[in-house]
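User: Need the bound-state model for guanosine-5'-triphosphate:
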Amino acid sequence: MDIQWFPGHMAKARRQVKEDLKLIDVVIEIIDARIPASSRNPDINQIAGGKPRLIVLNKADLAEPALTRRWVDYFKKTGSPAVAVDSHGGRGVREVPGYIQELFEPKKAKLAASGRRPRPARCMILGIPNVGKSLFINKLAGRRAARTENVPGVTRGRQWLKVAGDLELMDTPGILWPKLGDELVSFRLAVTGAIKEEIFDLNAVVGELLDWLAGHHPESIRERYKIDELPEDPQQLLEAIGAQRGYYQAGGVVDSLKAAKTVLKEFRGGILGRFTLEEPAES
Ligand SMILES: Nc1nc2c(ncn2[C@@H]2O[C@H](COP(=O)(O)OP(=O)(O)OP(=O)(O)O)[C@@H](O)[C@H]2O)c(=O)[nH]1
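Assistant: Bound-state model below.
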């Protein structure tokens, strides 16, 4: 899924999600723990409406633990239960059903009061591209919950995956658009991978990333790229990294594009360290 969101696409996504939400008791909003504000869909409150919602800060293994705790507290204080998760390693995933049951409780009581048979809480995942919706679904529902969308000739409707803890999970996540138009947000979406590389200026984005890292975590660059004195100009820093790695083009010119790709890959992979690019509004 690419990030080319146009008004038509957004309207279609919104309609689809609205339709699916009719079947849902609890919404699971997946965000990226490294950018908990920028990775939220701007209209999520309207879209999820009055449905109880759990915020999942995914990729917590790549984020700064202390800041993740602050973000979780912040969301809780603002009335949204939140949990930090690493969908790769699985940390935090097992806590999710408990939160969902709590959020389902009022509706469950209502169903019981009207004499209906108890049933599992029905949930669906919502989030912008690349926050880890699919991996989270697989982790929560278990290995056997293989998706079938690539099987030729199979027309899929919405399917439900059974999840331990008396839950049912819609197998297809709702993909929502990210915040568009704000430069700082776009930068954060680009470095974390929510925006595809083909559509941003790699050198500029990595330059901004190096600027941020040099300001907040200079030791991470010094240690990784063995550069004692960090040049102030990010483009010079990029060249120093390229030179250190031996990335030269014909004529002895440093291949700074290759250096930029390396830095981005290592940042995204957590090799430079665990970073969170934004803090909650209140401390
Ligand atoms: N380190 C780490 N990587 C993760 C985690 N969750 C997802 N990823 C990686 O992030 C990338 C995107 O994961 P997906 O599950 O495909 O994300 P998605 O939200 O379904 O993506 P779209 O289909 O584009 O909407 C993949 O490379 C995953 O391996 C996590 O908790 N930790």
